[in-house]
Each structure stands twice: as C-alpha cells, then as structure tokens.
Amino acid sequence: MNLLHLLLGAAALLAALLVLLRLSVSVLLVSGPSMTPALRHGQRVLFVRPGLARLRTGRIVVVTPPAMATDGRTARPGRPPGGRPLLVKRVAAVAGEPVPPEVREAAGAAAGDVVPPGRLVLLGDNPGFSTDSRLWGLLPTQSVVGIVLDGIRPRG
Question: 63 and 145 in contact (C-beta within 8 Å)?
Fold first, then answer.
C-alpha cells in the first residue's frame, strides 16, 4: 500500500508540475521579417511570462501592440481573443535609460529624456520591415506578454 501511495503522490506532483510549466512557458511562431536576422519567418520561439525572467535592454519579447497598431480582425492562431496579434520585438530601452533617437519623435521626447517608469522602447531588428516604437512611441511594460528564452529551428 505504501508503494501505491508513493506512486500516486509522484503522479500528482508530475501533473502539477506539467500544469505549472504550461502556464509559465509558451511557444510562438514568428511571422514576418521584422526580427531578421535574429529570428526568421516560420521559426518557433519559447517564451516565459514576464515575472519569470527579467525585462532588460537587448532581450527579445513577445508583446501585444497598442490598439492603434491593429486592424480589428477576429482571433486566429497567433492572435489572442480580442483580435490583437502577438508580436516579437527587441527591448531597446527600459525605465531610466535614454530614449533612443529614432523613437524621440513618436514618443514626444527630447534629446536627453529618459524612459519613465512603467514604460519601455521596443524595436524590430529589421527596421525596414518593422512596426515598433518608431511609430508607437513608448509602450507600457504591461504590454509584454513574455520574454523569449530560445529559438527552435524551423521545419523544412
């Protein structure tokens, strides 16, 4: 009977760990060239919820863009309920860091201004194909859905 209880306890612990893992780690399929060369169209990335990894300059994040950047389409894969897509961008500046020159106009910032608390700057690695803080300005840190851990090679 003790062995049965031990096995049942281990199975329950494993099930709880799997649920916790599913709630904290997700996979997203990259769509489009905005993060080339770091990430390619069709590549899968693993990301964790914001509290599980530190948000800092240089990190690649999964973000819900501002409402002005969406077209109101309905939910589909890669698009959460409510119709706003998930995008992948790089953190270019966090609170206390200078607002990058290419973002100042959209952010309404002057030379020497810093990113205020609760805000951040997000840029795509491929500026010619990226909609980001150059258009949106500063974004709330709450728009970050996850922090990318690693890329998974595309199939094919």
Answer: yes
- Find, among 37, 39, 3, the residue nearest to 154 by Cα: 39
- CA-closest candidate to residue 61, choices 117, 127, 139: 139
Q: Which residues pair with 152 in a beta bridge?
A: 44
CA neighbor of 120 nearest in space, from 63, 68, 82, 70: 63
Residue among 122, 145, 139 nearest 27 (CA): 145
pLDDT along the chain (156 residues), means of 10: 75 64 77 94 90 87 80 39 78 97 96 96 96 96 90 50
d(CA 31, CA 116): 30
Cβ proximity of 75 and 83 under 8 Å: yes
